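Hi V.,

You were right to ask for the full record rather than a summary. Here it is.
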Amino acid sequence: MKSLLCILFTFVLWLLLTWSLQVREVLVGAMMAVLVATLLAHIYPDNMQKMFNPRRWFFLAVYIPYFLYLCVRSNLDVAYRVLHPDMPIRPGIVKVHTTLKSEIARTFLANSITLTPGTLSVDIDGQDLYVHWINVRGEDPEEHTAQIVKPFEGLLRRIFE
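Predicted structure:
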């Protein structure tokens, strides 16, 4: 089942990238999908059938504008810090904890943190993430987790777990 879903996903991606339904393009896409699935199926996540759950797609549709809102808000915060005459920054690396269990959910969390201006995911160590933060506030790791991880974690849990 995993290989079949891998072939299907790769073939659909091929069709979207080539944007052509010519017989030659479709045949090459089918052959490449089988080749990729044969060689790389072991790196695809288990339980790919979860991806067809409409509930997960709904939460993904909610997550995208929410993520964009957080990015705009962070962009404005970073722009303020850059343009402020005193440049009020206090950079540092903080350790935050996540309750997400799956690797793909933690990867999306780390990428979401990195794509949000002012933060950069440096490392993932099990359930802990190390994040470079432009303005470290306080010394409490739980407070850091609440400010960095919690805005993303709830929706990512509904999408990936």
